[in-house]
Every structure is written in C-alpha cells, then in structure tokens.
Amino acid sequence: xxxxxxxxxxxxxxxxxxxxxxxxxxxxxxxxxxxxxxxxxxxxxxxxxxxxxxxxxxxxxxxxxxxxxxxxxxxxxxxxxxxxxxxxxxxxxxxxxxxxxxxxxxxxxxxxxxxxxxxxxxxxxxxxxxxxxxxxxxxxxxxxxxxxxxxxxxxxxxxxxxxxxxxxxxxxxxxxxxxxxxxxxxxxxxxxxxxxxxxxxxxxxxxxxxxxxxxxxxxxxxxxxxxxxxxxxxxxxxxxxxxxxxxxxxxxxxxxxxxxxxxxxxxxxxxxxxxxxxxxxxxxxxxxxx
Length: 290
Description:
A five-stranded antiparallel sheet has the order 4-5-10-6-7. Strands 11-12-13-14 form a four-stranded antiparallel sheet. The protein has a three-stranded parallel sheet with strand order 1-3-2, covered by helices on one side. The chain has helices at residues 13-22, 35-40, 77-82, 84-89, 91-98, 103-108, 111-116, 123-130, 148-151, 173-176, 228-234, 241-250, 265-285, and strands spanning 4-8, 27-29, 47-51, 61-63, 69-72, 134-139, 142-147, 152-154, 157-158, 165-171, 180-186, 197-206, 209-218, 225-226. Helices cover 35% and strands 25% of the residues. The longest helix has 21 residues, at 265-285. By secondary structure, it is an alpha+beta fold. Strand 12 (197-206) and strand 13 (209-218) form a beta hairpin. It has three domains: 4-50; 61-175, Uridine Diphospho-n-acetylenolpyruvylglucosamine Reductase, domain 3, CATH 3.30.465; 178-285, Enolase-like, domain 1 (2-Layer Sandwich), CATH 3.30.390.50. This is Xanthine dehydrogenase FAD-binding subunit.
C-alpha cells in the first residue's frame, strides 16, 4: 500500500540530526497524517523515512524563565488544546488545534508537521502568524531561529534544509502578554474538512481603542499572511461597529484570493471581511480584552 524503502527511528535528537547529515534523502515523518496520505496517493515513492516519535522532549510545552512559551514540534494537536499553559496564555492556538480534523487526526497530527507541510490551509499557521511565532531549526552544525513568516516560501514550500529538523515553536512574552484572540475556520463541512478560509485575530485594547491588532489569514494568498494595512489602520482608533467594518475592508489590500474548485475569489473575499468582523466582535463581546 505504501511505497516505503525503509524507516529509521532514532531515540535522540543528536542521533536524528546525524542521520540526516549523512543521508539527506531521508524524509521526516512526525505524526504521519500528511506523509502517509502523500504515500497513499503515490505523490512520493520509494521513500526512506526517519521517524521522530521516539525522541523525548520534542512534545513538551513549557514557559521559560523569561516567560516565553516553547512548544515542541512533535506536540500533538490534542495535547495543545488540552494544555493549561496554552489555555491560560494563548487560547487562540487551542481553538486552532481543536479545529484540526477529527479526534483520531488530532491524536496523531503534530504542530511541527502541520507547519512543515507548507499548506496554506494549515490550521495552526495563521494563528502562529498572528502570535509572531518564531521557529527553531536545528542541524548537526547548530541552530537558527527565524520568524514564521520567513519560513513559508510558497504553496507547499518552506525554508527547511534537507539536514534540518524543526524542534521548537517559540511565542515570546511580548507577543502574547495582555493579548486575547479568536480563530475562525470556515469550511464546506462543519468538521474534518480543510479550511476554505482561516482567520486569526489577536488584539490588545486600551481605553476602548485598538492598541494592537493582528489579523492573519489562511487560504487568502499563496502563503499564510498578515493584513498589515488593516493592522496599521486600526492602531489607536476607537473600538466601534463602524471602525470594525472599516478594518475588515482594509484586509482586502493584503489578500490574493483566487478562484478554485472549493470557492470563487469573490466568495473568499466576502468570507474574509465577514469573518474578520466576527472574530473581533467575538473577542470584545466575551469581555476577553484586557
């Protein structure tokens, strides 16, 4: 059923990095929910896999001494939406995690695999964009840390070298402190479907004004995007119905929606405006802003 040439299962990160350094044709498998589907459809064949499942410490969620949050790349979506650190500090990521497929998929799928797959529809991607996430990438010679928006290069393309492993997702204290957010996924079906549009909104309110507003979208361009024009427009203006509608219109300056078999360009743009308004109001109406 699967055209697999072989599979290795290192037990330490150093062992895995050494294997990749010696054999860059190895294909990393995390939860397997993406790779196995590609194998099933013969999109990749005669592949040698390197599984990260046995490596301890890659599925941990913790707050560091400087209050930055670290999420291991092998953390499952089930663990993310059930984790108290996520719930207390970046609940928007928990909302994205619980929207990811059904229970069986969430038990297996990992946040690192979701990111590295490079899919513009990845439920975690737009949320991590809104949280200004950084990614720690390691190889046998060292590590590099890059903003997530520099990681996505195009549809299905990411800046991951053949000898590298994504090990950590970092949310800095300054990027989540005093913020509240909301994620909305719109799909053709109510559950277990790929997002037609994903909207992630993070905001800080001060004196009934937008002190900071971040709007990130999935499936609105070749990669996940931030709506910078709308965010700049929102800074310092009063939180009211008219301004929220205007902010939603400003998001159109950043989008590059297209026609596809799933939805037309016009419908996607309509959804983006409607869901942006809904996400902002959901945060405010719940009294979630600080």
